[in-house]
Specification:
By secondary structure, the chain is α+β, with helices and mostly antiparallel strands. Helices cover 53% and strands 17% of the residues. Strands 2-1-5-4-3 form a five-stranded antiparallel β-sheet. A five-stranded mixed β-sheet has the order 7-9-10-12-11, covered by helices on one side. A two-stranded antiparallel sheet has the order 6-8. A hairpin with a 3-residue loop joins strand 11 and strand 12. Bound molecules: adenosine-5'-diphosphate. The site of adenosine-5'-diphosphate has 21 residues, from helix 9 and helix 10.
Length: 533
Amino acid sequence: MKNYSLYHPAKSLAAKLIIAIGVIMTVGSFIFWYALSYKQEKDLMAIALKYGSSFIDYIKDSTSHSMLTFQRDAIQYTLENISIAEGVEKVKIFDHKGRVFFSSRKEDVGGLVNKKSISCEGCHIEPETSSVLIQNPQKWTVYKGRDFRVLKIVEPIPNNPSCYTAKCHVHPPEQKILGFVEADLSLALLDKAKFRQGLALTGYVFIFIVAISVSLGIILYNFVSKPVSQLKQGMEKIAAGDFDYSVPVMTEDEIGVLATAFNLMTKDIKAARRQQERWTQSLEEEVKKKTEEIQKTHAGLLQTEKLSSLGRMAAGVAHEINNPLTGIVTFAHLMLKRLPPESEDAEDLKVIIEQAERCAKIIRGLLTFSRATPSEKGSVAINELLSRTIYMVKNQEKFHNIKFDITIDSRQSFTTLGDASQIQQIFLNMLINAADAMNERGTVTIATRRITADDKPFVEIEFADTGCGIPEEHLDKLFEPFFTTKPVGKGTGLGLSVSHGIVKNYGGSMLVKSTIGKGASFFIRLPLEEEKV
Ligand code: ADP
């Protein structure tokens, strides 16, 4: 089985997506958080400035009467009272030169304001040396107090007509600004509120990130990780040879399509495997069949070898017997001549001569058939050779119960070019097969006739029997070497193939017709050399 350890949940697609989206969301949330905090600070400062400005207006209004009536103590008293309110750090009124005339802290009265502070630098470029004004004066600043930040706001006290028309006539009408009110206001409340809001915002952002990450994780697990791990499991099963396993198809998206494709692929592999198994099985069967055929062929070859040795032996024996038989016949004839023709001994001698001649004829037939090397091709008179062959077999026991129905026109010899012994071998084979098919009991019909095929003259020799017939499925195998239905030792399966080979060699052909249970007919066609009438 393959090793799939390369896959690790931490390296999975879902994990990568969660990490990537988590990082993007954290950075995005931080930017959002920062922008919101910045805006909040700005808004709060705007509110603080508005209230600071209102506070200074309130001081101006509260002290204007005292100023017009030139009641210095009342002004000082008002400032001290106002600074009691929560969030008011200190309040000062100072002139152009920075001299403090009134202050909520008595000890500051008569002193100078810090030239480096916004009170001077807010309007003057170099407050120590020159009185040149800044174009857009800065009226406020925020500095760090003891515990909280403090807003310092400075506003000018304009020289209103009520001022320069007042009885005191302290200021001429040309003077635009009489002095400045400076208020230091604590931003403690705002900072506390801002801190609480910042804390809440951070909490919400954190909860938001966690909630999104968890939801994303669940979604990715269900839609990506789980189906992918099921696919992986499927692949492991297939690798282990379990082709019945199919991956559940939960969705119609890309993963669903992938799962469907995977299941189809599994089915195809299963079918291909079955096909392969079938092929293997049929191959095994084919190998078995061929092995049997080879074994049969081997047995057939052995049998042929045996038969050919037997044939050679029979030829030798026949040759040996032929000479004494000739002697017997010759001497019997001599004796017959010496005896009176009507005597009983002469009759007996005639029987001896007749039987001995019959033996000699059989022996001659055997010798012709078993001739080892084929003789030179010559003219063979088919009708004559066929009659001789029939005569030869008729004397054998195998054919004693067989009736021969012979239709041979003795006026025609049907001459063909070939080896007589080979052609006789074919005839003998036909007759032996017919006898076997009829269990040595029945009728063999033998006929010769002239036919024309492809405009050429042929002699057709027919051997028809009343035997078992040949099954349809055997017909196309009949002429194959070693095809036999006969028991081992009886049939070699060579007869028809050798006969067919000889006939083809002579330019002829062999045909077979058969009806199961009724018999078989073999037709041998050989080219006619010439017609002798
Ligand atoms: P063998 O006779 O040794 O079997 P053959 O080649 O002569 O070999 O014959 C092959 C087979 O053809 C026989 O085994 C038999 O099954 C079939 N066959 C041949 N002649 C006939 C016939 N006249 N009737 C029925 N079957 C026949």
